[in-house]
Amino acid sequence: MRKLLSNKQLFNLHIIAKETPNPLFMKFVTQGQTVIRAGSYEFTRKEQTVVSPLARQIFEVPNVTRVFFGLNYISVAVEDESMWAEKEL
Question: What does the DSSP 8-state code read for residue 20?
Fold first, then answer.
């Protein structure tokens, strides 16, 4: 299993929120730091988040349906695109 960064390691990240072509997703890009050391990791259910406290916390946000970790970003999907207008970024 890939080693994911802990919440403590992610605490000092500078993150920029970016829209994606898919309106259900928002991409959160780090500036010069990595989220995962290699490859990628996808969580489609809260039950899969036992390896990542950060992914588990993201799933606590109402209506989150997917969390994806890339090398320098986190992509989050919600049930309805209008929900992004309700979130403070």
Answer: -
